[in-house]
């Protein structure tokens, strides 16, 4: 597979979407909320206009929900856009990337020809960072929770690392958890980015935001495309952020379904399950041959898992699965057991 290939590859050679049950992309299992759906339909005619370049309404909604000042916000076309924007503006020479982690960290670092130093974590140690090591660099990029391992670095650990280097913290899955965000740690040393596409199941619209120190936020906003967040994404975001019930139902559902999903997976032989924190689970099979056979047979049943062999620090033994609806999870689990 290609080095930077990602999940969600449901398209055929002609570019048409096929009817796969896609466990390779980590999207809210409840799908699009009715509020978001209604906002998109209601505002369809508005696409004849340019989007608000200041995204005033959306910034106000983000500020209210996440208790951050609008002057610290940078709105982006999905969290992935921010990695490129941030690195292009700040130009760090040496970047630390704990691995395995989201491949866009490395790709964005390579785009500015930065020196990359991997920090390898081990499956035998549940992919925990060794805090005794040297974190000296211009920047470290961390996922919280980390994709694909699900590890959740603590607030205290973030503070400790920030004494040695600047941190770009990716909290794209934080809304799936009942934990404290690091947004209130934002300073000259710490910048936080968050996706809104995963929790609100709108990856096709692309939407995210970052919180940065005021002077840096001004530089980042000046460097990005003025219309990088489209009209419908802005309207969908405002509606989504007002839907508190949808967020609470999502968390309640995942708390129950995650436990069931993991308990069933642990009963399948030749398979190690890493305890999840968010809406995805990392799996390790006894051999790469077995994992790739499972992947192939699931695909024949129109079920997709994420092949993790192109994550630095993993190999062909590792697959990742999203957690979807109970009915869909049953289909995956029953099929895995048969295989």
Question: Which helices and strands occur, and which strands form pairs?
Answer:
Blueprint: E1 21-22, H1 34-42, H2 56-66, E2 73-76, H3 79-90, E3 94-99, H4 103-111, E4 115-120, E5 139-143, H5 155-162, E6 166-170, E7 190-195, E8 208-211, H6 214-223, H7 231-241, H8 244-266, E9 271-273, E10 280-285, H9 288-300, E11 303-304, E12 306-307, E13 318-322, H10 326-338
Helix pairs in contact: 1-7, 2-7, 3-4, 8-10
Radius of gyration: 20 Å
Portion in beta strands? 15-25%
- Helix proportion: 25-40%
Name of the CATH superfamily of the largest domain: Type I PLP-dependent aspartate aminotransferase-like (Major domain)
What profile does the largest beta sheet have?
7 strands, mixed
Low-confidence stretches: 10-17
Tell how many strands the DSSP assignment holds: 13
Question: What do we call the CATH topology of the largest domain?
Answer: Aspartate Aminotransferase, domain 2
Strand line-up in the sheet with most strands: 2-8-7-6-5-3-4
Q: Report how far apart the termini are.
A: 23 Å
Please write the string of helix (H) and strand (E) elements: EHHEHEHEEHEEEHHHEEHEEEH
Q: How many domains make up the 3D coordinates? A: 2
Q: What would CATH call the class of the largest domain?
A: Alpha Beta
Give an overview of the whole structure:
The protein is an alpha/beta fold and 339 residues long. The chain folds into two domains: 21-31 and 245-338, Alpha-Beta Complex (Aspartate Aminotransferase, domain 1), CATH 3.90.1150; 34-242, 3-Layer(aba) Sandwich (Aspartate Aminotransferase, domain 2), CATH 3.40.640.10. The chain contains ten helices and 13 strands. Helix 2 runs parallel beside helix 7 and helix 3 packs parallel to helix 4 (103-111). The longest helix has 23 residues, at 244-266. The chain is globular and about 55 Å long.
């Amino acid at each position: 597979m290609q080095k930077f290939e990602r999940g969600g590859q449901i398209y055929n050679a002609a570019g048409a979407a096929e009817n796969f049950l896609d466990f390779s992309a980590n999207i809210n299992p409840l799908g699009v909320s009715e509020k978001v759906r209604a906002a998109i339909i209601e505002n369809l005619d508005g696409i004849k206009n340019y989007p608000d370049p200041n995204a005033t309404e959306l910034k106000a909604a983000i500020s209210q929900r996440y208790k951050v000042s609008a002057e610290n916000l940078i709105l982006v076309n999905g969290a992935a856009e921010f990695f490129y924007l941030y690195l292009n503006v700040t130009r760090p020479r040496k970047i630390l990337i704990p691995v395995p982690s989201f491949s866009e960290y490395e790709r964005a670092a390579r785009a500015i020809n930065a020196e990359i130093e991997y920090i390898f974590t081990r499956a035998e140690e549940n992919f925990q960072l060794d805090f005794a090591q040297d974190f000296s660099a211009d920047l470290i990029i961390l996922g919280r929770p980390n994709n694909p391992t699900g590890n959740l670095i603590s607030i205290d650990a973030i503070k400790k690392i920030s004494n040695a280097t600047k941190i770009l913290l990716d909290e794209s899955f934080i809304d799936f958890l009942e934990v404290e965000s690091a947004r209130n740690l934002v300073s000259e040393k710490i910048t936080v980015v968050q996706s809104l596409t995963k929790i609100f199941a709108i990856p096709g619209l692309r939407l995210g935001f970052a919180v940065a120190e005021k002077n840096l936020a001004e530089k980042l906003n000046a460097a990005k495309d003025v219309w990088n967040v489209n009209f419908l994404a802005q309207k969908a975001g405002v509606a989504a952020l007002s839907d508190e019930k949808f967020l609470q139902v999502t968390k309640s559902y995942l708390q129950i379904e995650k436990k069931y999903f993991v308990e069933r997976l642990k009963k399948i032989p030749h398979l190690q399950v890493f305890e999840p924190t968010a809406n995805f689970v990392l799996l390790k099979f006894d051999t790469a041959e077995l994992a790739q056979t499972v992947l192939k047979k699931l695909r024949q049943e129109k079920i997709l898992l994420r092949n993790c062999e192109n994550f630095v620090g993993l190999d062909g033994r590792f697959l990742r699965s999203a957690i979807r609806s109970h009915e869909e999870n049953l289909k995956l689990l029953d099929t895995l057991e048969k295989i």
